Amino acid sequence: MMLKATNVIAALLILLGAGAFTLSSSSTALLPVYVGAMLLVVGALSMAFASARKQLMHSAMVVALLGTLSPAAALAIRSAQMNTLALTVNVGMLVLCGALLVLQIRSLQARRTRDSRL
Fold first, then answer.
1. In Å, how far are 9, 28, 63, 79, 107 from 5, measured between CA atoms?
2. What is the pLDDT of residue 31?
3. Which of 10, 32, 63, 67: disulfide with 17, CB 3.0–4.6 Å?
């Protein structure tokens, strides 16, 4: 379940960044692409190495956390100076990465609860 969610959100981040770059030609608009690409690599590695899936999904959690904190900091510092596109990209990345992080944390908690019952 988490592998599929990670790959879907990675694809959405790549689309968000590519679309923003197409509209603005600004290299900073590609930040969601970089985060999405890292998540796709982790997802691909998780599919290839099933025995390391747990560790790789923890790596995806770190990427999602950084992908959440980066636009949150940018919005906190300079949201008033951002144009509409930059604001949209930052909010989109914050929402997507934040949602992935919440899903991953809930999945981890559910697994620990399930394992403790055994």
1. 6, 25, 14, 29, 11
2. 95
3. 32
